[in-house]
Amino acid sequence: xxxxxxxxxxxxxxxxxxxxxxxxxxxxxxxxxxxxxxxxxxxxxxxxxxxxxxxxxxxxxxxxxxxxxxxxxxxxxxxxxxxxxxxxxxxxxxxxxxxxxxxxxxxxxxxxxxxxxxxxxxxxxxxxxxxxxxxxxxxxxxxxxxxxxxxxxxxxxxxxxxxxxxxxxxxxxxxxxxxxxxxxxxxxxxxxxxxxxxxxxxxxxxxxxxxxxxxxxxxxxxxxxxxxxxxxxxxxxxxxxxxxxxxxxxxxxxxxxxxxxxxxxxxxxxxxxxxxxxxxxxxxxxxxxxxxxxxxxxxxxxxxxxxxxxxxxxxxxxxxxxxxxxxxxxxxxxxxxxxxxxxxxxxxxxxxxxxxxxxxxxxxxxxxxxxxxxxxxxxxxxxxxxxxxxxxxxxxxxxxxxxxxxxxxxxxxxxxxxxxxxxxxxxxxxxxx
Length: 433
Prior knowledge:
Elements lengths: L6 H26 L15 H34 L2 H16 L8 H33 L7 H33 L3 H24 L6 E3 L4 H12 L4 E7 L10 E4 L5 E6 H6 L4 H16 L2 H23 L2 H6 L10 H12 L1 H28 L3 H14 L8 H7 L5 H17 L1
Parallel strand pairs: 2-4
Antiparallel strand pairs: 1-2, 3-4
């Protein structure tokens, strides 16, 4: 596929896409600005003070997001226009050769070195943004629980995991793409499928415990109720954990993970604190999560993820010609740097497709959320689920009246008012039968 002459169209796409994203985010900031009164639909859900606190949190985060977005857009355009990627690629080879004489240009070790240097650079340049968001915005609105020591420890752990685990997986993929040749259509999909399944086991069991402490949920009404709910649905619950999410943030959550007959449920400690007066709310939330399991949403999302990654790699294999490298300033020798080609392809060629796929996935995700809510209602948890959704939204200061376009493009979950409306409709439908 000849991609020569497409540099400026790609640049144009980036500019148009960034301007549109900025416009959509600006709509949300405008929507939550000021001290406006809540719309009629919010009455009975939240007080005026709660509504305004949620808006102020969304406004501060949105305004910060606009500035960060503009910064990223400008730096990405400058990086492309001045061919900084080829410069960085060549610099890592020159200095890497001095440290490791066996380093070969466009080789696997060169790719690993380039990715490692890039990970360090990104971590350092993102630090001011991450610190401002956590220690200024989150702190201002009462969510930050981190110390500076914990923050920097997390940064180091994440960087080391990115270099070792991420770099290792990237090198395996690059080696496979370069070695497999005509067997690409069989070998790469097989590798990706195995990798995704392995990572669904590795991440919660080995990676996440590096950041949080997981301990069995203590005996009591909540544990007994969850075990009874799981047994009622024949859910293969093997472990029930409480995680110390409150040591980093005031945001609360619950989730489940595991494949086949090895399921685990995890509850944030601050979620337990928020709902300890009415455990039925926790059961309503977990009935929703079990709805995702019952309807096969987890497997569906897993399959879509595998198919999407393989489709992207197949498209890259078709487009992996000298033209895509030369278009962005790389001089190609005897061997093309596959990692660079993959990065360029994902950032620029695949970007429009990814934008569309994300939009479609949000539509599907919202449908799944409505189905899971309906499942919880069918089990008799309508009122506890509604109370829990309202409490979670208010405690986490979620936007109660988001801009419709921003919500459509950026939120994987429907707005709270839409979910409550759908739950009430389901209840009315049951009563009319």
